[in-house]
Design brief:
Protein name (chain A): Proteasome subunit alpha
Number of helices of chain A: 7
Number of helices of chain B: 8
Strand content of chain A: 15-25%
Radius of gyration of chain A: 19 Å
Order of helices and strands of chain B: HHEEEEEEEHHHEEEEHHEEH
CATH topology of chain A: Glutamine Phosphoribosylpyrophosphate, subunit 1, domain 1
CATH superfamily of chain B: Aminohydrolase, N-terminal nucleophile (Ntn) domain
Number of domains of chain B: 1
Shape of chain A: globular
Distance between the termini of chain B: 58 Å
Function (chain A): Component of the proteasome core, a large protease complex with broad specificity involved in protein degradation.
CATH architecture of chain A: 4-Layer Sandwich
Keywords (chain A): Cytoplasm, Proteasome
CATH superfamily of chain A: Aminohydrolase, N-terminal nucleophile (Ntn) domain
GO biological process, one term (chain A): proteasomal protein catabolic process
CATH architecture of chain B: 4-Layer Sandwich
Number of strands of chain A: 10
Largest interface: A-B, 33 and 28 residues
Structural class of chain B: alpha+beta
Largest sheet of chain B: 8 strands, antiparallel
Subcellular location (chain A): Cytoplasm
Oligomer: heterodimer
Order of helices and strands of chain A: HEEEEHHEEEEHHEHEH
Strand content of chain B: 15-25%
Distance between the termini of chain A: 67 Å
Largest sheet of chain A: 5 strands, antiparallel
Shape of chain B: globular
CATH topology of chain B: Glutamine Phosphoribosylpyrophosphate, subunit 1, domain 1
Helix content of chain B: 25-40%
Chain lengths: 240, 279
């Protein structure tokens, strides 16, 4: 019979957290920002079909960094949770808060009980009728949950992107303004940016951009606030 | 409601939960009591159940140049009583399709709601719209699921119309209680007043009508249905109630505004009054 080595719970949790953090830090960053027109979600993503940003429900969107298969399964589970809840109660009863706490429970359960924690970080965003009613929740691999005002940055270079956004973000901006600010912040801090050769430009084909419109019913006649921007629209906004 | 992650069975449950893009299939596994028709026990329903629940009646739909149009009257009946003068029987299913319902109103409204969530759910999970054929087949499966209730007198008969974005034309689908799906050409009608509406459509429908003409044809055929079928409501000038009409074309589904319908209905009434004929 082989001998089981004793590992203290503290050490076990620390090892898992280090493992998950390393996995997330390899990924490219995603930014979710609240602004006057609604909420903008901007990700560096070279793939046109594997999305890091997705629609969950009428006013709720999802953004993630980390392992694609893991956050995609969480996104789909979120859509199922929201659709079942909206169908059995009412569409109004689906809230980002409810969804975020279910995500937190799942992530926490996987972190403590499964053989490997999820290497993901998520943001759940719900657009309100006024900017003060916007909700941005940020969830990490261990199930901790934070309610962030203004904007959320996730992925590899959080501190550096945060630094740039702090000076460029402003609550009164429109979608074009915050998308430009987010693209600029992501650009300056690419993981492979040597620093000496200056900034690398992030073209529209390298960006995945979606927005949650504040009042989609009157602007588009649709209760679904989520709208993915095409390459042409992103090109227009970045003004290349 | 648990997310399929966590615990020791997480890998298995994740795979099994992720296997479907269909909301109704997921619901039948995770919360079957929420499905229409399954709710409660159907064993005590008598064979003349049409006296127990409101019924929605006439729906007409037709193609026009560039799309399809669907219209429904506003009356629901329970036996010989008028249960509602305001009921709506035509709904947008998604951006490119609409659904009209005849039969037991309560179950039909539930089927409609489930169908709307089903299409939106597929779109969100898969990141793409279901094809029009795919939508029509899903609706057929849902009607088939209601067969036990239909056998006890609580039948739902939908009419489905949408814009086929691949073929660039409007198409119509009718159903029977077993979920059988039949594509209809030119125009179709369901419900108790449909025989009269069908007669009107045969005379009034022309190929390549524009949208305005199609709206007035829809209103006039509903008028004829209401004239002879007591379960179908005509235009109500006292309460200013007009049929519910949706048009679907390459730009998507849109509801025809009240003032257009008021004008169309008043024109029909005026022309009949001027003619002064009995039938």
């Amino acid at each position: 019979m082989t001998q089981q080595f004793y590992v203290s719970p503290e050490q076990l949790m620390k090892d898992r957290a280090d493992f998950a953090r390393k996995g997330i830090a390899r990924g490219r960053s995603v930014v979710v920002l609240s602004c006057s027109e609604g909420i903008a979600l901007v990700a560096e993503n070279p793939s046109p079909s594997l999305h890091k940003i997705g629609e969950i429900y009428d006013r709720i969107a999802f953004a993630a960094v980390g392992k694609y298969n893991e956050f995609e399964s969480l996104r789909q589970a979120g859509v199922r949770y929201a659709d079942v809840r909206g169908y059995s109660y009412d569409r109004e009863d689906v809230t980002a808060r409810g969804l975020a706490s279910v995500y937190a429970q799942s992530l926490g359960a996987v972190f403590t009980a499964d053989s490997k924690p999820f290497e993901v970080e998520l943001a759940v965003a719900e657009v309100g009728l006024r900017q003060a009613e916007d909700h941005l929740y940020r969830l990490t691999f261990d199930g901790s949950i934070a309610d962030e005002p203004d904007y959320v940055v996730m992925g590899g270079e959080i501190d550096a992107v945060n630094e740039t956004l702090r000076s460029n973000w402003d609550a009164g901006q429109d979608f074009a303004g915050v998308i430009r600010a987010a693209a600029g912040a992501l650009e300056g801090h690419l993981p492979d940016n040597g620093g000496a050769s200056g900034q690398r430009r992030l073209g529209p084909e390298m960006l995945e951009v979606a927005v949650l419109d504040r009042d989609p019913m009157s602007s588009r006649g649709n209760r679904r606030a989520f709208r993915r921007l095409s390459n042409a629209e992103v090109t227009d906004i970045l003004g290349d | 409601m648990n997310l399929p992650a966590g615990g020791h069975s997480s890998t298995f449950s994740q795979i099994s939960h992720a296997a479907t893009a269909s909301f109704s299939e997921y619901l039948s596994r995770s919360a079957p009591d929420l499905l229409p028709g399954v709710r409660g026990s159907a064993t005590g329903v008598s064979s003349n159940a049409e006296h127990l629940a409101p019924h929605a009646t006439t729906i007409v739909a037709m193609t026009y140049a560039g799309g399809v149009i669907m219209a429904g009257d506003r009356r629901a009946t329970m036996g010989n009583m008028i249960a509602s003068r305001h009921i709506e029987k035509v709904f947008p299913a998604d951006n490119y399709s609409v659904l009209g319902i005849a039969g037991t109103a309560g179950i039909a409204l539930d089927v409609t709601r489930l169908f709307q969530v089903e299409l939106e759910h597929y779109e969100k999970i898969e990141g793409t719209l279901l094809s029009l054929e795919g939508k029509a087949n899903r609706l057929g499966a849902m009607i088939r699921g209601n067969l036990p209730m239909a056998m006890q007198g609580l039948a739902v008969i939908p009419l489905f119309a949408g814009f086929d974005t691949d073929r660039h034309l409007g198409r119509l689908f009718s159903y029977d209680v077993t979920g059988g799906r039949y594509e209809e050409l030119e125009h179709h009608s369901v419900g108790s007043g449909s025989v009269f509406a069908r007669g009107a459509l045969k005379k009034l429908w022309k190929p390549n009508m524009d949208e305005d003409r199609a709206v007035s044809v829809a209103v006039e055929s509903l008028y004829d249905a209401a004239d002879d079928d007591s379960a179908t409501g005509g235009p109500d000038v006292v309460r200013q109630l007009w049929p519910v009409v949706y048009a679907v074309n390459s730009a998507g589904a849109k509801r025809i505004p009240e003032r257009v319908l008021a004008a169309a209905a008043e024109a029909v009434i005026a022309s009949r009054a001027v003619a002064g004929r009995e039938a």
